Amino acid sequence: MNVYDSARMADVLAPLGYRPVEAPEGADMVILNTCHIREKASEKVFSELGRLRLEKNRQAADEAGRRMIIAVAGCVAQAEGEEIMARAPFVDMVFGPQTYHQLPEMVARASRAAGERVLNTDFPVESKFDFLPGESADAGVSAFLSVQEGCDKFCTFCVVPYTRGAEFSRPAAQILAEARRMAASGTREITLLGQNVNAYHGDGPAGGTWGLGRLIREVAAIDGVERIRYTTSHPRDMEDDLIAAHGEVPQLMPFVHLPVQSGSDRILAAMNRKHTADDYRRLIDRMRAARPDLALSSDFIVGFPGERDADFAETLRLVTDIGYAQAYSFKYSARPGTPAAGLDDAQVPEPVKNERLAALQQLLNAQQVAFNQACVGRVLPVLLDRSGKRPGQLMGRSPFMQSVPVTAPQRLAGTVVDVLISAAHANSLAGEPVLADGVTVSGPAAPAPPVDFSNPPAWEATA
Ligand code: SAH
Ligand code: SF4
Hints:
- The protein has 13 helices and 19 strands.
- The protein is an alpha/beta fold.
- It folds into three domains: 2-120, Rossmann fold, CATH 3.40.50; 129-373, pyruvate-formate lyase- activating enzyme; 379-444, CATH 2.40.50.140.
- The strands form six sheets. It has a five-stranded antiparallel β-sheet. It has a four-stranded parallel β-sheet with strand order 1-2-3-4, sandwiched between helices.
- Helix 4 links the parallel strand 3 and strand 4 (118-120).
- Helix 7 packs parallel to helix 8 and helix 11 runs parallel beside helix 12.
- The radius of gyration is 23 Å and the shape is globular.
- The structure holds S-adenosyl-L-homocysteine and iron/sulfur cluster.
- S-adenosyl-L-homocysteine binds at residues 37-38, 157-158, 160, 195-196, 232, 234, 259, 261, 299, 301, 330, 332-333, 335.
């Protein structure tokens, strides 16, 4: 979502004469768009600010005495705005994630010769989406589109409800208009974004409320949209219509990120996730019934306060039962102001967290390797969405989000080609475009044959 927000900030700033550059050296303004989700992410902000201060000091001031504007945006700005203003006097602007449509006014204040400092962590009553300009002409072959923001779920470990605010869904007409503009400018894959994207319940164009399933069907009807994804979803909001869409909408990719966090019912309850591990297993069964080749990804937290060895064993068991194509796992980090951070006696010692993280990642990596291996010998539709590292190479993505570098002429950039997969690596696949009667170009991706999870997968041996 920060990638999307950054692109929209660039759109807002373009009429003021700003354009994105590759490096801070010589820039007129640097905006750090920050994440507060884990301690590590927010620590990075202060070390990065230290580096930017050196660059600012190196720059000669212009005739009006101005130098590079340094801004901190996003959720660290929202949560720690005052602290940043106090600790880093060289920072000119600090603004939260719901205020960036007000950038022109903030920049005007900060660029006065007097150098006014701006702190803006309001939750404005108006929605920023009503005030953003049309996005730049080249959103990219694969692009994000925010449809929902904020969260009302209050998992006990999480800062999102405090930094991003309450759940909000954009009206469907606004989203469809943005999707049409993106498709017209060459975007072929749209990833619908939200902190809780499947809690989407936006106003329909003709009254009533649309869920995510309905929205996906309508985006799929837009000319030029060949692939649709959505992230991040919550197990409790996986409605029947969305599950059905997986079996019915060919553009909807068979890869879903559905975080479970833990396999222990005791810990899930303490996290306030409001579902059990078996609820999640049954949900995955229903999703796989709708789309047999569905691949899954998840987030896991190890060392949540009070997590015992037996709880962690339940997490490993759940991972073994589901079989993930890919996953993210994190050590629990106490976030200021969240209920779990106050559970002082129950905090899990760091060495235990480290051990559990290593064990979980070993299992998840083995599953990822097995999943990638199972792709070898298959023909997968690959969307060539960016240029490759080497000349004559294009980078693409499989339906399952694996990176696939392909030797192909530049004219195929932005199209879907069938690729015969010849080798699998930890994070990518290798292969050659299929040359039947020339290279297969474009068209909605056909469903790929299912990976057989019932055949004893390699990871069971390692579990
Ligand atoms: N809305 C999504 C998650 C968004 S946060 C959901 O409900 O699943 C992204 C991920 O960061 C979470 O899934 C969780 O695994 C991780 N995370 C959030 N807070 C954390 C914390 N305090 N410590 C460690 N990991 C955390
Ligand atoms: Fe955070 Fe996701 Fe829970 Fe909301 S549902 S509180 S974003 S982890």
